[in-house]
Amino acid sequence: MRKILSLILAVVLLLSCVPAALATDNSREFFFELSVDGGDTKQVQPGDVITVVFNLNRTDSAEPYDMYAMQNEIRYDSRFFRLVEGSALLTDGIHTTDLGLRDEYREFYMNFVSMSGGEKWDARRLVGSIQLEVVGQTGVSKITNQDYLVSTANGQDHYETACQDVTIIISTDCTVTFESNGGTEVPNQIVNYGEKVQRPEDPVRKGYHIEGWYTDIDMKNLWDFENDTVQGNMTLYAKWADGDPAGGFQWLWLVIGLLILALLLLLLLLLRRKTVRFETGCEAAIKSQKVKKGSYAERPENPIRPGRTFVGWYSNREMTEKWDFENNKVKKNMTLYAKWM
Hints:
Blueprint: H1 2-17, E1 23-36, E2 41-43, E3 49-58, E4 65-67, E5 69-77, E6 81-83, E7 89-90, E8 95-100, E9 105-113, E10 119-121, E11 124-134, E12 140-151, E13 157-164, E14 166-169, E15 173-179, E16 189-192, E17 208-214, E18 234-242, H2 245-272, E19 273-279, E20 289-292, E21 310-314, E22 334-340
């Protein structure tokens, strides 16, 4: 009989891992209710011992019904709570196991399987209770229902269910821990309950780039820094992907930025350098000069024109404004005109 019971429990536990594979039967509705001191929220101090009560309520009818199989996994954070050894008080036929998960959470597993084709349960049923010692020092933590279901008679479907979790508060200063999963260390943040986490600087991991931060170790629930708010002490897990495209893009943008900067400097230099052209009025040609704005042009060699005498350089065609290379400064692009006699 013990072997048969163990096999049945194993099957139920296996089904709990794939609840989506079961269809939902809407002919009955159930509410998995966790409470502490009759409510869903409690203020505590470090060292307090709380009693978590689990009631299963049928919500579509107040009449007794046949229970075939049910299960619930009461999840708690082992950094915030410690299960008091031997504290579980259970209704008849309930089997339990305290399971350690891959992260810092644990689950107190409660299940019932009828060995006689169904057992009469009242519409409100006290399934059991456990005691947890508060070992955390600050913050908020939730005790939640996980993978909860009530099975139909044939075990192929489950009934419609909802749940109530409980919130335990030491203080509203919640600790957000960042697990970089092989990347450089990211400091913890203290965030007020209900507020947003500040997006940290991305950690670095050679050969990888970060895809995002997730609330669970299996990387299924992406944390949205723009919209999600802190509901208790929590850990965010970094998810990585092979390669370093982000770093490559950073280098690309750095190169582009340097090129743009160089072009801007060149443009600035060109804008500050003015062109001085020389119009000789004869076949003699004088090379133009590039002169820094506000500086002096160099006096070129006097041009030669057969039968004429060179008088000087003027800044206008009318030859009324003589250019003084010693005192006049170049302020813009300009042409100097040779005057002849």
